[in-house]
Amino acid sequence: WVLGLLIESVADSQKSASKAQNPSGFVSHGLYRFCRHPNYFGEIVYHLSMLATGVTSCETWIEVLLSSIAPVAMTGVMFGATKGLEKKQLAKYGGTAAYELYRRTTP
Asked: How far apart are CA 14 and CA 6, in angstroms?
């Protein structure tokens, strides 16, 4: 879970610094070179890691099921947020050669 929190924090910091320098540009350096949404990826890793570590203390299947509700729900929220942000970025930066190349080459 620490790795997920670290990825999310570093990505958010890099995005904030980039937006401070160029508010109208998209972020494509740092962790954003490897993934278009590393902050969301980090949060997903965090929640699923918390589930993986917490489930070891469960004694019954019902406890496992109940323990998985929040992490699975948060993962769904992050996927939904990613789709929403993809639409906003496409509307804002779509059509520019740099952004189209970034979208094609970065998962």
From this structure: 12
34-86 tens-digit pLDDT: 999 999 999 999 999 999 999 999 999 999 999 999 999 999 999 999 999 99
Cβ neighbours of 78 (radius 10 Å): 19
The full DSSP string for 36-91 is S-HHHHHHHHHHHHHHHHHGGG--SHHHHHHHHHHHHHHHHHHHHHHHHHHHHHHH
pTM: 0.89
Distances (CA, A) of 13 to 17, 34, 48, 75, 96: 6, 16, 22, 21, 25
Length reported for the chain: 107
Say which residue the tokens 């469960």 belong to: 58
Q: Residue 17 is encoded by which pair of tokens?
A: 């610094």
